[in-house]
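[09:14] KT: can someone run the structure on this one? pasting the chain below
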Amino acid sequence: MAQYNFDAARAKEQLDRMIDLDRRKVCAFCPKNIKSETTSKIIIETDNWYVKNNDFPYKNTKYHFLLISKKHVKTINSLSKSARSEFLDIVALVEVKYSLTSYGVGMRSGDMRYNGGSVEHLHAQLLVGDKDSEDKDPVRFKMSSQPKN
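[09:31] RB: done, structure tokens below
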């Protein structure tokens, strides 16, 4: 199975990058690649997690952070106990660092063909809607899908 779910791409630029990474067999979220294969810099780093802005933020977000496991896994159960417990500390750290008063966190685990994810490397999304956006559509986080093939 591919490392990327092309059906989950939300923009042509994102799809083009996913196709290129997949062709080169590169996981953009793995520690050896994250700085060279993504455009947003890492803003927080711990023993088990990276936090960075999403290179392809969802429509109508003020902030769209990715909380990325340093270990290349696709399920929460595959993380170490320390990585699992550190996750909530990371969420709290982002909340304080950016003075967030309202946000949502979403994480997909398992087969990305069925959960709507775009990359087979465990990560979470911390989203803050842009209440000042002229477009009043809510931010939507895809949590499931059916494969096209």
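[09:33] KT: thanks! Residues 43 and 82 are 21 Å apart (CA to CA).
[09:34] RB: yep, looked fine to me
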